[in-house]
Amino acid sequence: MTDHDNIPDRDAGINGYQKIDRYNPELIKNLSAHYHEVLKELGENPEREGLLKTPERMAKAMLYLTHGYDLNAKDILTSAMFKEEYSQMVIVKDIEVYSMCEHHMLPFLARHT
Ligand SMILES: [Zn+2]
Q1: Ligand 1 centre from 104 Cα, in Å?
Q2: pLDDT tens for residues 63-111?
Q3: What is the pTM of this model?
Q4: DSSP states along 29-63
Q5: The domain 25-83: what is its CATH number?
Q6: Cα-to-centroid distance, 38 and ligand 1 (Å)
Protein backbone atom coordinates (compact mmCIF):
# COMPACT_ATOMS: atom_id res chain seq x y z
CA MET A 1 0.00 0.00 0.00
CA THR A 2 1.06 3.57 -0.51
CA ASP A 3 1.25 6.27 2.13
CA HIS A 4 -2.29 7.36 2.93
CA ASP A 5 -1.54 9.89 5.64
CA ASN A 6 -3.41 12.64 3.80
CA ILE A 7 -6.58 10.64 3.30
CA PRO A 8 -9.45 11.14 5.72
CA ASP A 9 -10.34 7.90 7.49
CA ARG A 10 -13.91 6.93 6.61
CA ASP A 11 -14.29 5.32 10.04
CA ALA A 12 -12.88 8.31 11.89
CA GLY A 13 -16.29 9.44 13.15
CA ILE A 14 -17.70 6.07 14.17
CA ASN A 15 -16.61 6.20 17.83
CA GLY A 16 -18.81 9.02 19.03
CA TYR A 17 -17.50 12.37 17.91
CA GLN A 18 -13.81 11.57 18.24
CA LYS A 19 -13.03 12.47 14.68
CA ILE A 20 -9.39 11.91 13.78
CA ASP A 21 -7.92 14.09 11.06
CA ARG A 22 -5.02 12.49 9.23
CA TYR A 23 -3.89 15.42 7.16
CA ASN A 24 -0.42 16.90 6.93
CA PRO A 25 -0.75 19.91 9.29
CA GLU A 26 1.84 21.99 7.42
CA LEU A 27 0.01 21.46 4.13
CA ILE A 28 -3.33 22.31 5.73
CA LYS A 29 -1.83 25.48 7.19
CA ASN A 30 -0.41 26.59 3.83
CA LEU A 31 -3.53 25.80 1.82
CA SER A 32 -5.77 27.40 4.45
CA ALA A 33 -3.81 30.66 4.20
CA HIS A 34 -4.47 30.73 0.45
CA TYR A 35 -8.16 29.91 0.84
CA HIS A 36 -8.41 32.64 3.49
CA GLU A 37 -7.22 35.10 0.83
CA VAL A 38 -9.55 33.63 -1.80
CA LEU A 39 -12.53 34.24 0.49
CA LYS A 40 -11.42 37.87 1.00
CA GLU A 41 -10.98 38.40 -2.75
CA LEU A 42 -14.50 37.06 -3.26
CA GLY A 43 -15.80 39.80 -0.94
CA GLU A 44 -16.35 37.58 2.08
CA ASN A 45 -15.15 38.25 5.61
CA PRO A 46 -13.19 35.14 6.61
CA GLU A 47 -13.07 36.46 10.17
CA ARG A 48 -16.82 36.20 10.73
CA GLU A 49 -17.87 33.32 12.92
CA GLY A 50 -19.42 31.16 10.22
CA LEU A 51 -16.30 31.28 8.07
CA LEU A 52 -13.59 30.96 10.70
CA LYS A 53 -12.79 27.34 9.88
CA THR A 54 -13.88 27.50 6.24
CA PRO A 55 -10.34 27.95 4.82
CA GLU A 56 -9.25 24.82 6.71
CA ARG A 57 -12.33 22.94 5.52
CA MET A 58 -11.63 24.05 1.94
CA ALA A 59 -8.04 22.81 2.26
CA LYS A 60 -9.16 19.45 3.61
CA ALA A 61 -11.84 19.13 0.93
CA MET A 62 -9.30 19.77 -1.82
CA LEU A 63 -6.90 17.24 -0.32
CA TYR A 64 -9.71 14.72 -0.14
CA LEU A 65 -10.74 15.38 -3.74
CA THR A 66 -7.15 14.97 -4.95
CA HIS A 67 -6.10 12.08 -2.72
CA GLY A 68 -6.05 9.80 -5.75
CA TYR A 69 -2.71 11.32 -6.69
CA ASP A 70 -1.23 9.37 -3.78
CA LEU A 71 -2.84 6.07 -4.80
CA ASN A 72 -1.43 3.42 -7.09
CA ALA A 73 -4.07 1.99 -9.44
CA LYS A 74 -2.08 -1.20 -9.96
CA ASP A 75 -1.90 -1.84 -6.19
CA ILE A 76 -5.65 -1.29 -5.85
CA LEU A 77 -6.62 -3.46 -8.81
CA THR A 78 -4.31 -6.33 -7.93
CA SER A 79 -5.57 -6.28 -4.35
CA ALA A 80 -9.01 -7.30 -5.71
CA MET A 81 -7.76 -10.42 -7.54
CA PHE A 82 -8.60 -13.95 -6.40
CA LYS A 83 -8.63 -17.51 -7.77
CA GLU A 84 -11.84 -18.67 -9.44
CA GLU A 85 -12.69 -21.86 -11.37
CA TYR A 86 -14.95 -19.89 -13.70
CA SER A 87 -13.17 -19.39 -17.04
CA GLN A 88 -15.59 -17.22 -19.03
CA MET A 89 -15.41 -13.51 -19.57
CA VAL A 90 -16.21 -11.41 -16.54
CA ILE A 91 -17.89 -8.07 -17.11
CA VAL A 92 -17.73 -5.39 -14.47
CA LYS A 93 -20.47 -2.78 -14.90
CA ASP A 94 -21.69 0.39 -13.24
CA ILE A 95 -18.24 1.60 -12.35
CA GLU A 96 -18.42 5.00 -10.70
CA VAL A 97 -15.69 7.43 -11.61
CA TYR A 98 -14.93 10.45 -9.46
CA SER A 99 -12.52 13.04 -10.66
CA MET A 100 -11.92 16.74 -11.05
CA CYS A 101 -11.97 18.95 -14.11
CA GLU A 102 -8.43 20.21 -14.53
CA HIS A 103 -9.63 23.48 -16.05
CA HIS A 104 -11.87 24.62 -13.19
CA MET A 105 -10.92 22.24 -10.35
CA LEU A 106 -14.57 21.23 -10.06
CA PRO A 107 -15.44 17.69 -9.03
CA PHE A 108 -17.55 15.45 -11.24
CA LEU A 109 -19.03 11.99 -11.11
CA ALA A 110 -19.48 9.61 -14.02
CA ARG A 111 -20.82 6.06 -14.25
CA HIS A 112 -19.49 3.62 -16.80
CA THR A 113 -22.25 1.14 -17.72
ZN1 LIG B 1 -14.00 22.55 -16.13
Answers
A1: 4
A2: 988 888 888 988 888 888 888 898 899 888 888 888 899 999 999 999 8
A3: 0.68
A4: HHHHHHHHHHHHHTT--TTSGGGTTHHHHHHHHHH
A5: 1.10.286.10
A6: 19
